[in-house]
Amino acid sequence: MTEPSPPLTSRQRLLLALLAFDAFLLGLLELFFLPLRLDGIVLPKLGDFPMPVTVVLAVITTPLLVRTTAKVVRPSFSVIPLLVWVLVVLGMGVTGPGGDLVLIQDWRALLLIGGGALPGALALGGGLGNAAKVAKGVSSG
Q: What's the predicted TM-score (pTM) here?
């Protein structure tokens, strides 16, 4: 039987709250800027093609938040930024401000959800697997 983990320090709690808030803000940013197009308004004019640049942001930042939480707080808490991101994207996307549907209903929405959740879940599984190896005393190599 394993011993319970010690409670989080105040520094760890603050860092966890900051990382969860980062996930919240990134989820909102990625959701609201998902409909960007190459139409000359925000991005250059190149044929009015949809350009989901926030998907790239999600692919990079979501696993980064998960790994950072595992390092500076505790691996068992690294699911929190991923859950916050998913809840923000799905929750705000479907029941946005004033009940509006913010999550656009085309391939870009699937790309955003998959591009953020899948790398984040892979980082989460890898981090938890490494933590389990270290806990058992097996070298990770």
A: 0.86
